[in-house]
Amino acid sequence: MNGTRDETMPALYKSGPGAGLELVEAPVPRPGADEVLIRVLLTGICGTDLHILQWDDWAQGSVRTPLIPGHECVGRIVETGSGVRGLREGQTVGVEGHLTCGRCAQCRSGARHLCLNNINLGVHTDGVFARYVVVPAANVWVHGEGVPLEVASIFDPLGNAVHAATTHPVSGLSVLITGAGPIGLMAAQICARMGARSVVVTDVSSFRLLLAENIDVVPAAAPESGSEELREAGDTPLGFDIGLEMSGAPEALQTMLDAVSPGGRIVALGLPSRETSVDWADISTRMLSIQGVSGRRIPETWRSVAALVANGLDPSFVITHTFRYDQYAEAFATAASGRAGKVLLDWT
Ligand SMILES: [Zn+2]
Ligand SMILES: [Zn+2]
Fold first, then answer.
1. Beta bridge partners of residue 288, listed in sequence order
2. What pLDDT, in 10s, does the model give residues 17-63?
3. What is the pLDDT of residue 57?
4. How far is the CA of 113 from the centre of ligand 1 (A)?
5. CA–CA distance from 260 to each of 162, 167, 180 (Å)?
């Protein structure tokens, strides 16, 4: 095991409760027996990281400080713990950010995504916004040959998109996607690729709707487009067969309920930042189904993502900005502005 020569590393750090992040020199972590040390190359800024920066209600109730946040990354293994098998130095890897216990009833029945003791990288334990990160070997995904680094860096959110878009078969059906952030856009791309009859994507950001023009879908402005206009745009007069709610915006939830057909199936991935109300009677009388989706199935979704990319899926149109890690303030402001898709930080 060759150790790295670096003793300290640059890292984005939240020292205690409150808004903001600072760039510090932190000690390089050492891997335990079943862990690996990864040299981080590129990281993605996720909505979760914006919540942590801003220290909103969700962050106050969920985040443990002190903390190095961040969970979306591509990097190279530089050291493996003594008990690690099947991984080696130099491999280009991604990380599943849900650190599951492996012991609970859900984990033991193969449903790691439903682990009862789940810990989130970069939320409950130090994450990837640093030059190095230590993660359990069981959470490492080894990238295949030829995956571009920037595509590899977004396998985590691409996995969210695949998980949501494959919850129900979409072939031949009409799909409404509320929220054209990176995950919504990638889900739209996947639905179109999987043979959906029509895919309509809504957002309040005209910048994001412009990104949707890179793929074979119909962009629609929210909230200006009500459910009637959306049905027209999707050429689906009775309503959409499938809805993917990716925004968490309270206004979008009722739009979604109104726009799907009787018997419509809704996948709920977006996280409202506060409690919100919908007309529950709609769900009952129109016999709608709502399926919550979070994270990725482990490892099935990672395999699906790798197969889609190997077969030519190119989600790089969602990456609009890359900043050096020391320009993090500008990077986070850009990600929060609504005038960006996926924003990357470069740690090389
Ligand atoms: Zn994320
Ligand atoms: Zn578990």
1. none
2. 999 999 999 999 999 999 999 999 999 999 999 999 999 988 999 99
3. 87
4. 15
5. 21, 16, 18
269 CA to centre of ligand 2 in angstroms: 21
Relative to beta strand 319-324, strand 119-120 is unpaired
Does domain 8-153+314-346 match CATH 3.90.180.10? yes
Q: Write down the domain spans for the chain.
A: 8-153+314-346, 163-292
Q: What is the pLDDT of residues 54-112, one digit of tens each?
A: 999 889 999 999 999 999 999 999 999 999 999 999 999 999 999 999 999 999 999 99
Q: How long, in residues, is the chain?
A: 348
Name the closest ligand to CA 44.
1
| DSSP single-letter state for residue 145 | T
Which of 51, 98, 113, 163 does the annotation list as catalytic? 51
CATH superfamily of the domain spanning 163-292: NAD(P)-binding Rossmann-like Domain (3.40.50.720)
